[in-house]
Amino acid sequence: MQLSQNLNENIQYLKSALPIPKSFDIVTRELLLGETRAYWAGINGFCKTEILQQIFADLQNPLYMKDSLVQDIALYLSAKIGYAQAQLSDDWDTILKNICSGPSVLFIDGFDQAILIDVRTYPARGVGEPDTERVSRGARDGFVETLLFNANLIRRRIRSPRLTFEILSVGMESKTDVAIAYLDDHADTALLEKLKDTLTHLNVTALTMGTKSLEELLVPRKWLHPLPSMHLTERPDVACSFLEEGHLVIIVDNSPSVLILPCNIFQFTQSPEDYYKSPIVGTYFRLVRFLCIPISLLLLPLFLLLTVHYPQLAQKWELLSTQKLPGPTIIFYILVVEFLLDLFKYSASVSSSRLSGSLSIVGGLIIGDIAVELHWASVEILFYAAITLLTSLSLASAEFGEGLRIYRIFLILTTAAFGIWGFAGGILLVLLSTATTPTFAGMSYLWPLFPFRWGALKTLLFRYPTTKAQPSRIWKR
User: Fold this and answer.
1) Crossing angle of helices 327-350/379-393, nearest 10°?
2) CA torsion, points 51, 52, 56, 57, in degrees to nearest 10?
3) How many separate domains does the chain show?
4) In the listed set 263, 289, 311, which residue is the last one of a domain according to the structure?
5) Alpha helix (H) ranges present in 81-202?
6) 319 near 430, Cβ under 8 Å?
7) Full-model pTM
8) 328-347 pLDDT, tens per residue?
9) pLDDT tens digit string along 217-227?
10) How far apart are CA 125 and CA 133, in angstroms?
């Protein structure tokens, strides 16, 4: 819908579209620019008051006005409003979206266009290091909930003229700003066009949970695929490294993490810590994390298989050193310990940092000992469960570790019910679920293992020195 040239009609429409004066945070002012009537509207708290006061003081200064009447609004904008972020608009949808997003609007009588003055400011926290991706060395900044700040953190590291941020609006009610960051000569053009087309046609009311909501909209998943379909990071240096490799980075306003496309399973085994250590040390810890994946997945199901269905092997290898337990008891113990470990981990993650350490100590020392005394668990099962928990915590991605936990519980149930056949069949189903995990644009989740690309796979398995990781045009001048 287009604006009217009559100021009173525009004011009436604005009051019908916005809760004026019901909502206390919507501020309006009637102004006189010489002898020309004007009307201003904005959101209290989103506008920089000092800049607005300076703009209005200049516009109402008799010495500043050559003529008492505004004759040409475009010329008036160019000559009188020197603020950099100001533009004209004649569309009500654009104007209402801008008012709700932060920019203020100035209506002038006699013109069917309004002046959008972007003097917005958002409340934001400091760009501190994210708790989930800490490193012993390196940068200590992280993404925050403000899209512009996140774009600046990336632009600060990549000062290339080819770095591009394309912004779109997602959500019929939330109208959340979503920016796609990419290097113009590095990114896959077909993937970029597919992503823009998908975001443009998303039929959703609001991105309630930010990047997580957008991830589920871009890649719909079923319950049989617990592994993450998109890689998230809260570190600007990690996002920039993926940009340099040709990936797309999706920045969602109000979210302190960004999405990275395309995604494969090997991205969840990498950690920025690898690149802040020497190549041999970084490669060693990366291979340790690879080893932690099968240990976290198979240790408890394999222990259950041997102790319940093959007790002679368990006795020979002394897997149960204290006493011989019946099979149903071992199954019960393992399920109880799995539940308790998940309960401790969840409680520690949502509790205050002042209490999480104490909670872990209490859970490990007191509750574990009491569980053994009350015959709710055994020492051996607690030991194997503790190793499983440590290997899960050592994985770089917490969401990937949680997906492995679902697979592990599934293997425990199939092994307890069907023995060796349940164990083997469960592993096959886990591999099938992993291989068919959906990704955006249907790209292979196991790439570069399938389809096989050794040149790409070895860079994921090993931490290469910086000289070999740079493009050839840098080192071969």
Assistant:
1) 40
2) -40
3) 3
4) 263
5) 92-101, 147-157, 189-200
6) no
7) 0.85
8) 888 888 888 888 777 777 77
9) 999 877 789 99
10) 18
